[in-house]
Amino acid sequence: MFARIMAVVMVAILITAVALSGIWWITLRNQQIDARLDYLISEAEEIAYLASEVTGSTMENYLGSSARSHLNAMADKVNREFGAYIAVVDSWGNVMDNIRTAYSEDPDFVNSLSGEAVTDALRAVLSGESIRIRSSEGQAPTFTVGVPFLQNGYVSGAVFIQTRAQRIESGLEQILLKIILLTAAVLILSEIAVLLFVRSALRPLRNMTAAAGNIAEGDFSVRVDENRGGRELREVSRAFNTMTKKLQGVEAGRREFVANVSHELRSPITSIRGFAEGMADGVIPEEEHPKYLQLVAEESRRLGNLVNDLLALSRLEREDAKPEWSVFDINEMLRKAIIRRMADLDNKKIEISCESETDPCYVRADRDRIEQVVINLLDNAIKFTGENGKITLTAEAKGKTVEVTVWDNGIGVAEEDREKIFDRFFTADRAHTSGKGTGLGLSICRRIMEMHGQSLRLLDTKEGAAFRFTLEKAEAPGNDLTETGNHA
User: Fold this and answer.
1) Which of 332, 342, 420, 427 is nearest to 379 (CA)?
2) Where do the CATH 3.30.450.20 domains begin and end in the chain?
3) How high is the pLDDT of residue 334?
C-alpha cells in the first residue's frame, strides 16, 4: 500500500515538474528574445534620432559631419554584438549601411538576406510603423527590427536592422540546462519531502495494523497513539483504542464467566462424587446412606438449577431474543406469586402485603419473563428476611409506565456490594444474593428488563433492601384473546 501511494505521488510530482519546466522554458525564452529585440529597437531609435538631426534634402549633408563617427560607432557596436546588417534610408532614397562590414564578417548571412522581405519591411517602417519580425525565408531565419525617424513632424526615413535569429536566440541552451537542473533538484527534494511526510502520515496506520495483529493473537491491552497524524487519523486512533478497551473488558468478562462457571459446577460435582465414592467404598456407614443421599439430591438440584440458569441467560443474550408481548394484570401476578411462596412465608412467619393504587393494573410485557422476575425477587426477599420479618409488593402507575417494587426489612445490601449486585455469580456473604443461590438470578432479571426496554435497580433504603422494575402501562384488554396472549 505504501509503495503504491508513493508511486502515485511520485508520478504526479514528475508530471507537474515537467509541465512547470515547459512553462518556465517558454516564458524565459520569450522574455530573452523580447529583451534582445527591445535592445535592438532602442539602438535603432538612437540611430534614428541622430538621423533625424540631418538637415537638407539628402543625407550627404550629414555624411561629413562629426555625427557620422558617432553613428558608425553605434553601428559597429550593434554589429559586434549581433552581426547585424544596419541601414539608414531617407525618404529620398539615400541609403547609408554597413553592408561591407557585415559581408566581411558573415557573407553567408548577407547573401541570405531577402530583398523582397527587406523592401516589405522598409515600406512598413516608412509608413510610420515600428516593426519586429522573425522571418524563416532564405537560408537561415532572421529577425528584423525597424523604426522611422521624423523631420518637421513627417516621416523622413527609417532605421533598419537585420540579424540572424540564432544571434537573438543564442544562450537559451544554458537557460534550458539551468531549468533541467532546477527541476531535477525540485523533484528530488519533493520526493524526499513527500517520502518523509507519507511515512509520518502512515505511521499511525502501520501501528494500527500491528496492534490489530496483536488483537488477533488475543492481546487486547494494545493501544495506539491518539495524537499522531491528521484529524481523521486521530479520530480513527481514538475509536480503535475505544474498541480495544471494550474488547479487553469483554475478554475479561468472558474469562471471569468461564472461571465462575467452572467453580460453580465443580463445587456440587465434587460433593456428589465425594459422597458417592464414600458410600461405595464403605467410608460412609450404611446406616448413614439416606442422609448422604439426601445431600447428593440437594447438590444435584443445585447443579440442575445452575445449568438451567446458564441456559436461560444464554437464551436471553441471543441477538434474536425478543419478548412475547401480551397484556395482563400485574397485581394478579403479584398475588399469585405470594400464593406460590406461602409455605415459605409461613415457615418464617413473615408478614407480606400487596399494595396498588389501581386494581386491576394492566401492563404490556412478556408474561412468563416478568413472572420469572417477580418470583426471583420474592425468593430473594424471603431468603434474606428473618423470622417475623416483613415484605411488601407494590405496583404504582406513573404516567406511561408502572413501577413494581419488592421491599423487605431483611439484612439489606452492604454499601460496597451495591455496584456489583447485578454481576453474574456475585455471591458475597453480605450481598443480597448470598447463600446457596447460583448468583445468576439478578443478572437474568436485569437482562429480561433490558429486553423490554425497561429498568431494574436497587433502591436506597434505610432498612432492608428494595428492588424496583418498570413496565409499559397498557389499557384493559377487550374480548379478543390475542391481546393477552395464550397464557393460562
Assistant:
1) 342
2) 2-173
3) 92
Where does CATH 1.10.287.130 sit in the chain? 260-316
Summarize pLDDT for 159-178 with one digit per residue, the tens: 888 888 877 777 666 667 77
Annotate 305-317 with b (16+ C-beta within 10 A) or e (fewer): bbeebbebbeebe
Q: Per the structure block, which three cell numbers stand in for 358?
A: 389501581
The residue ranking higher by pLDDT, 266 or 406, is 406
Cα dihedral 190, 193, 199, 203 in deg (nearest 10) = -140
What number does CATH give the domain 325-483?
3.30.565.10
pLDDT band at 64 (very low <50, low <70, confident <90, very high): very low
Q: What is the mean pLDDT of residues 101-121?
A: 75
Fold of the domain built from segment(s) 260-316: Helix Hairpins (1.10.287)
For residue 360, whether the previous peptide bond is cis, meaning omega lies within 30 degrees of 0, is yes
Q: Higher model confidence: residue 189 or residue 478?
A: 189
Closest to 457 in 3D by CA, of 448, 170, 466: 466
Cβ atoms of 257 and 240 closer than 8 Å: no
CB 273 within 8 A of CB 296: no
CATH of domain 2-173: 3.30.450.20
* β-strand pairing of 154-164 with 325-329: unpaired
153 exposure class (CB count in 10 Å sphere: 0-12, 13-18, 19+): exposed
Of 196 and 281, the structure prediction assigns the larger pLDDT to: 281
DSSP state of 323: -
C-alpha distance from residue 290 to each of 2, 299, 310 (Å)? 76, 14, 30
State the chain's mean pLDDT as an integer.
Answer: 78
- What is the model's pTM? 0.47
Q: Where in the chain is the domain with CATH 3.30.565.10?
A: 325-483
pLDDT score recorded for residue 291: 84
Cα 244 to Cα 256: distance, rounded to the nearest angstrom: 18
Return the residue matching grid coordinates 480495544.
Answer: 244
Q: What is the pLDDT of residue 428?
A: 47
Instruction: For residue 75, give the nearest of 159, 166, 195 by alpha carbon.
Output: 159
Euclidean distance between CA atoms 353 and 133, whole angstroms: 117
CA–CA gap between residue 457 and residue 460 (Å, rounded)? 10
Would you mind telling me the total number of residues written for the chain in this entry? 488
